[in-house]
Write a structure and sequence with these properties.
214 residues; mainly beta; Elongation Factor Tu (Ef-tu), domain 3; 3 helices; 39% strand; globular; disordered C terminus; Riboflavin_synthase-like_b-brl; Riboflavin synthase; riboflavin biosynthesis; EC 2.5.1.9; Lumazine-bd_dom
Length: 214
């Protein structure tokens, strides 16, 4: 579990193609300071398991499912990445609960820069828009952000200068992909409401309860 508060802007050192998988070597002196084999690090919002760590670098394997559902397959040596270690129990939750399980990739549609910050509009993949609400939480490339506006097919977030300076969103431009993870609480609510609705139906589809079908 993560918080969406990026700890370090790391860099891809190498990418090893393994057919339907890949092995990444990434540089992150801060996040590797206390991690060991088997620990979790979020890379652009994707939870990866540390294979080995040495000299401020770590390696992680990325399976086919992760490559197909995230933008990690587009990484190359020199690419900058957002890094965050798994949260410690009892630590401050400054962002929101982030699983590191990417729901899909969006595309930056527009970027408006000003002295006070930047507004970024992201086109959503099908099916994710229903989980977003204004002032709710969304994870973009591993960054916990607040939704400013959501309309059919896209949403907008506002970034302060600190976020721009310390994350990949400071450099990304329209047309580039970003990993998206919606608030898991929204998905739980959807599942619970769906189960309750199903429970209120009889086998023939009529509403259950006293006087049902009359």
């Amino acid at each position: 579990m993560f918080t969406g508060i990026v700890e370090e802007l790391g860099e891809v050192v190498s990418v090893e193609d393994r057919g339907d998988a890949a092995r990444l070597r990434l540089r992150g002196p801060l996040v590797t300071g206390d991690v060991e084999h088997g620990d979790s690090i979020a890379v652009n919002g994707v939870c990866l398991t540390v294979v080995d760590v040495a000299d401020g670098e770590f390696t992680a394997d990325v399976i086919a499912e992760t490559l197909s559902r995230s933008s990690l397959g587009a990484l190359a040596p020199g690419s900058r990445v957002n890094l965050e270690r798994a949260m410690a129990l009892g630590a401050r939750l400054d962002g929101h609960l982030v699983q590191g399980h990417v729901d899909g990739t969006g595309t930056i549609a527009a970027r408006t820069d000003s002295d006070s910050g930047t507004d970024i509009t992201v086109d959503l993949p099908p099916g994710l828009g229903k989980y977003l609400v204004e002032k709710g939480s969304i994870t973009v490339d591993g960054i916990s952000l607040t939704v400013v506006e959501v309309t059919d097919g896209h949403f907008t977030v506002s970034l302060i200068p600190t976020t721009l300076a310390l994350t990949t969103l400071g450099h990304k431009q329209p047309g580039e992909p970003v990993n998206l993870e919606v608030d898991v609480l929204a998905k739980y609510v959807e599942r619970l409401l769906g189960d309750r609705t199903a429970g209120d139906r009889t086998a023939d589809g009529r509403t259950a309860g006293t006087g049902a079908g009359k």
